[in-house]
Amino acid sequence: MTKVLYPGSFDPLTKGHMNIIKQAYELFDEVIIAVLQNPLKTSGLLTIEERMEIIKNIYQKTNNVKVITANGAAVDIALLYECKAIIRGLRSLSDYDYEVKLQQINKEISNNKVNTICLFADKEYQFVSSSMVKEILNLNKDISKYVDPIVKEKMLIKKRS
Ligand code: ADP
C-alpha cells in the first residue's frame, strides 16, 4: 500500500489543489492531505479547523483521501503517517525554484526516507492560487471558476462576518 502526503495551507482549497489531489488518489492507494499553518503566510482567512472541515466535506465519499492537521515539519508528518512521498504541485518557474530546494532539505532531514513527487495541474487550473481567490473575493467578484461551491459558500459567509 503506497501512501502519500499532500501538505499545504489550503487557505482556501482551490480547484488547482483539487486537480492535484485527484491525480494523486488515482496514482496512489491513499492520499493524506495535511492542513498546515505556514508561519510565512500571516494573512490567513480561514482557521485551520474551517479549512479541514471544508476538505473533509468535499472528500467525504472519496475513500482513499484523508485529512489531518499537525504541527511540525512535513517530513516528520510523512514519517508518522507512513507516507512514502510528499506530493507537491508545480505551477511556474518560481514554484520550481522553491520546490527544488524544499525537496532537497526534506530528503536530507529524513535521511532519504521521504521523497518528493511533483505533479502538474491541468492547464485550466495551472495558475489558480489561494491568494488569487482571496483577492478576487475582496474585489467582490465571482470565485466560482476557481473553487468548489462548498468553499465559495464558506468564504462568502466568512467575508460577511
Ligand atoms: P498556495 O501556494 O496557493 O498558498 P498551498 O500552500 O496550499 O497553496 O499549496 C500546497 C501545494 O499545492 C503546493 O505544492 C502548491 O505549489 C500546490 N498548488 C497550489 N495551487 C496549485 C495549482 N493551481 N496547480 C498546481 N499546484 C498547485
How would the blueprint of this fold be written?
Layout lengths: L2 E6 L6 H13 L2 E6 L12 H11 L6 E5 L4 H7 L4 E6 L2 H17 L5 E6 L9 H9 L10 H12 L1
Parallel strand pairs: 1-2, 1-4, 2-3, 4-5
The structure holds adenosine-5'-diphosphate.
Description:
The chain contains 6 helices and 5 strands, in the order βαβαβαβαβαα. The chain is of the alpha/beta class and 161 residues long. The chain has one domain (3-160): 3-Layer(aba) Sandwich (Rossmann fold), CATH 3.40.50.620. Helix 1 links the parallel strand 1 (3-8) and strand 2. The model has no long low-confidence stretch (mean pLDDT 94). Adenosine-5'-diphosphate binds at residues 8-10, 14, 16-17, 20, 88-89, 91, 95, 121, 125-126, 128-130.
Task: Give a quick set of tags describing it.
alpha/beta, Rossmann fold, 5-stranded parallel sheet, 6 helices, 5 strands, globular, binds adenosine-5'-diphosphate
* Number of H/I helices: 6
| Strands in their spatial order, largest beta sheet | 3-2-1-4-5
Provide the structure class: alpha/beta
End-to-end Cα distance, whole Å, is 44 Å
- What is the name of the CATH class? Alpha Beta
Mean model confidence by pLDDT = 94
Q: Order of SSEs, N→C?
A: EHEHEHEHEHH
Radius of gyration equals: 15 Å
What does the main sheet amount to?
A: 5 strands, parallel
Name the shape in a single word. globular
**Percent range of helical residues:** 40-55%
CATH architecture: 3-Layer(aba) Sandwich
- The CATH topology name reads Rossmann fold
Number of strands: 5
* Bound ligands, named by name, code or SMILES: adenosine-5'-diphosphate
- How many domains? The number is 1
Strand content: 15-25%
